[in-house]
Amino acid sequence: MDAKICGIKDFKTLNYIINHNTPPKFVGFITNYPKSKRYVENEKLKRLINIEKKKVNFVSVLVKPNDEILEKIKNLNFDYYQLYEVSPEKTKIIKEKYKVKIITALTIENKDDVEEYKKFESISEIILFDSKGYEKSVGFDHQLLNNVPTKVNKMLAGNIQYNDRLDKYSKIADIIDISGSLETSGEKDISKIKIFLENISKIKNEN
Description:
By secondary structure, this protein is of the alpha/beta class.
């Protein structure tokens, strides 16, 4: 199982993650959603991610992105765009125009929401099944994913705790996406990130 740590906005935390002996596969940055306390405005974002990523993939998290923001970030150090509320047609255009890998984010409440993945699986490298909460860590019934075939590269988010028994997710998803539970008083907490990465590493070693 791989991991994504989302909502990074400061240099100290990012450097800790990248230089960890078992870093996550993905780090996410909130690029165009000012409602989130984890949002990073464009000028700071440029400086923040202009570093040697080592083995980590950088993900731009975008909610209904317009052409202006897509043009602003097109030369930044991103490997993936994580797209919320973007149609399959627009997703395909973004992927081809900007030569970027795609994480399609679906917000889940019921089985019908899960089934939406079928419209995106041929365009997206990864399908993220998230809660309806967006920037709030809300949960949903993860068993809804039981019928999604294993060929789909599944990322799972929504109220997952850093000190959970993470192996319980390994049959449901390929990648765990976590943000809020790694925070103390609204800021990323390196001691929690350390525990989370150790937990993920244990699962990998067991498998």
